[in-house]
From TrEMBL:
GO molecular function, one term: ATP binding
Superkingdom of the organism of origin: Bacteria
UniProt xrefs under Gene3D superfamilies: Histidine kinase-like ATPase, C-terminal domain
Keyword Transferase on entry: yes
Every Histidine kinase domain range: 37-242
Protein name: histidine kinase
EC number(s) recorded for this UniProt protein: 2.7.13.3
Keywords from the UniProt entry: ATP-binding, Kinase, Nucleotide-binding, Transferase
Protein species of origin: Dethiosulfatarculus sandiegensis
PANTHER family assigned to the protein according to its UniProt record, in alphabetical order: SENSOR PROTEIN CREC, SENSOR PROTEIN RSTB
Catalytic activity: ATP + protein L-histidine = ADP + protein N-phospho-L-histidine
Length: 242
């Protein structure tokens, strides 16, 4: 049973803007984590070069430079990724999106989350489908990351670690399916889990995540469904761009 709580449109937009900024902050954390690894990749060979030069092992030092070059290249790629994502995540322009690409790009930021990196076992099935849709990148990314964050939190609570992300093609809609083996929402809540301020979690979770995720997609013809527990599956549906 849904409470049908209504929120003033201006307040709703303020909530959405805050959630978009929070999403960008989470992604930046992932970039910092990725760059830390790249810096270590560059730093170690430089230390070895210093050692080699002190021992007059110039030829070995030259070969070590290949590793340094690889690290610099990776660092450049990460900075380009950050610049591109920051631009898209702060842009509300409606554009054609390839959902499989969006999923891969967003997952690349999540290793900054220690549970995601070290404990979660993420399986993706992104078959070659026409998964183009038309919507602002940041709104689709917001919805995807909200469901992904919920799934990871559910896995932490349950002690499970398997997370599946699939793409499905059903007629005029393309679906992103996020599946985990955590407890899932209370079945008694029904569709009210998408209402504002509905939550079974602690005070740190105000119950806006699913509500804002659904609202972010509604104006673009998108929907979010809870397809049941055991396993828990949430689905994002977006109109196919013909």
């Amino acid at each position: 049973m849904s409470s049908k709580t209504e929120i003033n449109p201006k307040i709703l937009e303020a909530f959405l803007q805050a959630e978009r900024r929070a999403m960008v902050s989470r992604l930046l954390k992932g970039v910092v984590h990725n760059l830390s690894g790249v810096i270590q990749q560059v730093r170690l060979p430089l230390d070895l070069i210093e050692l080699h030069l002190s021992q007059d092992q110039i030829q070995e030092a030259a070969s070590t430079m290949d590793s340094v070059q690889a690290g610099v290249t990776k660092l450049t790629e990460e900075l380009q990724l950050l610049a591109g994502r920051s631009s898209q995540d702060c842009d509300d322009e409606i554009r054609e999106l390839e959902l499989s690409t969006l999923i891969e790009e967003q997952l690349a930021f999540w290793p900054g989350d220690m549970f995601f990196k070290h404990e979660a076992r993420v399986e993706t099935d992104l078959p070659y489908l026409d998964t183009r849709t038309k919507a602002p990148y940041m709104d689709v990314a917001l919805a995807f990351n909200a469901l992904l964050a919920n799934a990871l939190e559910s896995l932490k609570e349950s002690g499970e670690n398997l997370l599946r992300i699939n793409l499905a093609d059903q007629g005029e809609m393309v679906w992103i399916l996020i599946e985990d083996h955590g407890p899932g929402p209370n079945p008694d809540l029904g569709d009210s889990i998408f209402d504002p301020f509905v939550t079974t979690k602690d005070a740190e979770h105000p119950g806006l995540g699913l509500f804002l995720a659904r609202k972010a997609l509604e104006k673009w013809g998108g929907i979010i469904k809870h397809q049941g527990n055991e396993p828990c599956v949430f689905a994002i549906g977006l109109p196919r761009q013909g």
